[in-house]
Amino acid sequence: MFFVDEVIKNNWSRAVLLNFLDTNLYERQGKAISNFQTTLPAYTGDLAQEITKDPYNFDFIALNRDYNEKELEDALTEKVMNLLIEMGKGFAFVGREYPLPIEGTEEYIDLLFYHLNLHCYVVVEVKIKEFKSRDIGQIGTYINIVERPFQVLCKLQKLI
Questions:
Q1: pTM (2 decimals)?
Q2: Among 54, 69, 136, 149, which is least packed by CB within 10 angstroms?
Q3: Rounded to the nearest 5 degrees, what angle is found at the Cα of 11, between the Cα atoms of 5 and 13?
Q4: Contact residues for 94 (Cβ-Cβ < 8 A; gap 6+)
Q5: Nearest to 20 by CA among 116, 85, 91
Q6: Residues paired with 99 in a beta bridge
Q7: Rounded CA gap, 110 and 67, in Å?
Q8: Which pLDDT does position 151 carry in this prediction?
Q9: In angstroms, rounded to a whole number, what is the distance separating the alpha carbons of residues 120 and 142?
Q10: DSSP-derived secondary structure for 86-153
C-alpha cells in the first residue's frame, strides 16, 4: 500500500516506481537518525523526518573506487534530475558550492536545496568519510546563516 499511495500522491511513472521498488524505498524513507521530532513543531518535524532516507541510493552515478568529495559532488550535480528524484518530492536544487559570506571570508555549501512543502532551505555537506564532530560545527554555521531573515537570503542570492 505504501507504493500505491506514493504513485497516486507523486504521479510517478512506471520507470520511477520500478526504480524505487528496486532501491527498497519503503525500508529507507524516513529512517535517518535525526532530532526533528523533538526540536521542531509536530507537523514540521514529521515532514522533515519523512524526507530523510537511510541510506540514500546514488547508484545512478559512476565513480572510480577511490574518489574524493569533489568527484562525488561533481557526479551528483551532473545527474541533478536523478539526484532530485532520489531526494524526494518537493526538493528544488538551488546551487552547488553556494557562497556564504562568513566574517569577512567566504565559505561554500556543497549542495543547497529548497524544500517547497517545508518552506525551508536544506543544506547538504558532502562527506565520503565518517562524520566527525567538527562537521557538526561546520553544518551548524551554514544552517544558521541560511536561516537568517529573508533580506539576508536575498543578498546571498545575488552572490551567485
A1: 0.52
A2: 149
A3: 110
A4: 112, 113, 114, 121
A5: 85
A6: 108
A7: 16
A8: 38
A9: 13
A10: HH-TTEEEEEEEEEEEETTEEEEEEEEEEETTTTEEEEE---SS---HHHHHHHHHHHHHHTS-HHHH
The three-state secondary structure class of 27 is helix
Helix (H) or strand (E) holding 19: helix 14-22
Q: Residue 148: what pLDDT?
A: 63
pLDDT, averaged in runs of 10, over the chain (160 residues):
84 81 77 72 73 70 79 83 84 88 84 87 84 80 70 43
Edge-to-edge order in the sheet of strand 91-102: 91-102, 105-115, 120-124
103 φψ region: left (φ > 0), alpha (ψ -120 to 50), beta (else): left
